[in-house]
Design goal:
The chain is of the alpha/beta class and 268 residues long. It has ten helices and 13 strands. Helix 3 packs parallel to helix 4.
């Protein structure tokens, strides 16, 4: 049976954010099409969660933060280049960011999400559909529960990745520390290794802002951080705006973008 294609949109964020300011696209079990200027149309199937635990992860939508990550890596490149890098995507959802990293000539790409079989199987479908050889042989899908490092994947790939990407993973404050620990665990010790984080404010600025304090406690530092709106305008990051009474409609137009790295060693 054909899966319905629910949304078709361009890689330009100004076209994705329509008047109703949607932060997510598609419905469980449907598909969306991401139109990349560099790589053409990508059909992404959305997960149909098998249980309440999986549904609470909201991996069955494509979120605007993931689209922005794909835009940076696939279209802007430059400082967002992943060519020749080993890349890990955390909290992948549809796997879009990791897929674009693979197409953008990363040396190795691991696309990871919570180890629920239906979530990982859905990412596998999207990878197989959108990543041709030879890129496919360098791309894998792995289950990873943030903050848990006793499994084979976590022990094998510790400190292995020069780039880690995470899109719209900050809306659960109770998971901030585990996420930060995973970033620290997998990030390479190379001086140029970086974590790229993008998140939307749709659940409220107060829910995601503490993450940037937690990462410091867990051995990382914020190299740069800013906000970007639907039209590509940028402004300084603020943990709180308008005395905590930020307009709900207005905040949905913005994303926070951050670049993290390991703390420098003493004398480094």
């Amino acid at each position: 049976m054909d899966i319905p294609v629910e949304d078709i949109f361009s890689a330009a964020l100004g076209l994705i954010f329509t008047d109703d300011l949607r932060n997510q696209h598609g419905d469980p079990g449907s598909s969306v099409i991401y139109k990349s200027k560099s790589y053409g149309d990508m059909e992404l199937r959305l997960n149909d969660p098998a249980g309440e635990d999986s549904r609470k992860l909201f991996s069955h939508y494509l979120w605007n933060a993931g689209v922005q990550m794909a835009e940076y890596v696939g279209e802007e490149r430059g400082e967002w280049s992943v060519e020749g890098e080993k890349v890990l995507e955390l909290g992948a959802g549809t796997g879009l960011a990791g897929i674009v990293c693979a197409l953008a000539e990363a040396e190795v790409v691991v696309i990871s999400d919570y180890p629920a079989p239906e979530i990982l199987a859905n990412i596998d479908v999207n990878v197989n559909k959108n990543v041709p050889q030879p890129h496919r042989s360098r791309t894998s899908v792995k289950g990873h529960e943030w903050g848990v490092f006793t499994d084979g994947f976590s022990t094998t790939y510790a400190n292995s990745f020069g780039r880690i990407v995470a899109a719209d993973c900050l809306w659960m404050p109770y998971e901030h520390r585990a996420l930060a620990q995973s970033m620290f665990h997998f990030l390479s010790h190379e001086d140029e290794a970086r974590v790229w984080v993008i998140a939307g404010f749709h659940t409220g600025r107060a829910k995601l802002a503490p993450f940037f304090d937690v990462v410091v406690e867990e051995g990382l530092e914020v190299e740069s951080i800013w906000e970007r709106d639907v039209d590509g305008h940028e402004r300084e990051w603020m943990a709180e705006r308008d005395g905590g009474k930020e307009d709900v409609t207005g905040r949905k137009r913005w994303l926070v973008v951050a670049v993290l790295k390991r703390k420098r060693r003493d004398g480094g």
